[in-house]
Write a structure and sequence with these properties.
The complex is a heterodimer.
Chain A: H1 3-15, H2 25-43, H3 58-67, H4 69-80, H5 85-95, E1 99-108, E2 112-120, E3 126-131, H6 139-142, E4 143-148, E5 151-157
Antiparallel strand pairs in A: 1-2, 2-3, 4-5
Helix pairs in contact in A: 1-3, 2-5, 3-4, 4-5
Chain B: E1 5-10, H1 16-30, E2 35-38, E3 44-45, E4 58-62, H2 65-74, E5 84-89, E6 93-98, H3 104-119, H4 128-133
Antiparallel strand pairs in B: 1-6, 2-3, 2-4, 4-5, 5-6
Helix pairs in contact in B: 1-3
Classes of the chains: A alpha+beta, B alpha+beta.
Chain lengths: 171, 134
């Protein structure tokens, strides 16, 4: 991460009210790079044109904050909740217009939690995202719900409203 | 000329950069071939990914390319009734404008969109900062 990227990322973390969570911006930068690598891996098997972009970089994420702050806020909040790169890639593809075709959760106390999300891409093909990490269930906190002609619909992810950190120490 | 109905959803403390994509996305789910246009600059968007919601306060969503072209040619003509939904976002409220709620398709979209904005999103509680500012 360059000094410019680091400064910008620190500003974004502050504006997103996540400074208390992401105290180590360098570590966050590495996690964003890991997410970007995984996004690229997931998009490898996808037909050209099925995704708005098959590649995402740290610079892309930083730039996106100025044009679409909510997309980056959602990504950072999902990271704060401990979501894996698999679900972060799913969220980012969704933020760029892919739709949740199917979501299944199989949970049994003290045994397993399996989350599978099937995204419908821009060319109507689909791609699956699977996780057995319980922290990935946090995506359910961020998903937008609706009904369409009384039929259920999950579409898009949106940031939680977070309290702003106090500027100074408690007196 | 055709008339219009304003439907206002109060959303204290929720920024327009979040309400607008939530609304556009809902309409896009209903009208998959929709064309979007910035109400301030007339800039056209052919995809959700290309929209910069950090700067959009007013969006026209046309049912499809044909509806967009017809609006370009004729404007608010009776033949264009219910072919476009006008969305306006501000800090505390979201406004949906349609030609008529007598049209069942438009009424269904408005009903679903109001539900989505008021209870389908993770923003029941405004931030403490917004409460202080209010």
């Amino acid at each position: 991460m360059t000094p410019e990227q680091r400064t910008l990322l620190q500003e974004i973390v502050g504006e997103a009210n996540l400074a208390r969570i992401f105290k180590d911006v360098d570590d966050l930068g590495r996690r964003l790079e890991t997410f970007a690598t995984h996004y690229f891996e997931k998009s490898k098997g996808v037909a050209r044109g099925a995704l708005p972009t098959s590649h995402v970089s740290l610079d892309d994420v930083l730039a996106e904050f100025r044009s679409n702050p909510y997309r980056v806020q959602v990504l950072l909040q999902a990271m704060a909740f401990g979501c894996t790169p698999e679900m972060l890639a799913m969220i980012w593809m969704s933020e760029l217009g892919c739709t949740i075709q199917k979501l299944t959760l199989d949970y049994e106390r003290r045994d397993h939690a399996v989350l599978v999300v099937k995204l419908r891409l821009l060319d109507a093909s689909t791609i699956d995202f699977r996780s057995t990490e319980v922290w990935d269930l946090a995506v359910l906190r961020l998903v937008g719900l609706a009904k369409s002609d009384e039929k259920p619909q999950m579409s898009g992810f949106y940031p939680l409203s977070l309290p702003r950190s106090s500027a100074g120490p408690a007196s | 000329m055709i008339g219009g109905v304003d439907i206002i959803v109060e959303l204290p403390g929720v920024p327009s950069s979040v309400t607008m994509p939530a609304a556009v996305r809902y309409v896009l789910d209903r009208w998959p071939a929709a064309v979007m246009q910035d109400g301030d600059t007339a800039r056209r968007f052919d995809s959700f990914a290309a929209m910069d919601f950090g700067h959009l306060r007013e969006v026209f969503v046309y049912r499809d390319e044909q509806a967009f072209q017809s609006w370009e040619r004729l404007g608010a003509d009776a033949t264009n009734a219910n072919q476009m939904i006008h969305l306006l976002a501000s800090v505390s409220r979201f406004t949906i404008v349609v030609d008529s709620l007598q049209d069942t398709s438009a009424a269904s979209i408005v009903h679903g969109l109001c539900d989505r904005l008021s209870k389908g999103m993770p923003w029941l509680a405004p931030s403490l900062e917004d409460e202080k500012a209010a």
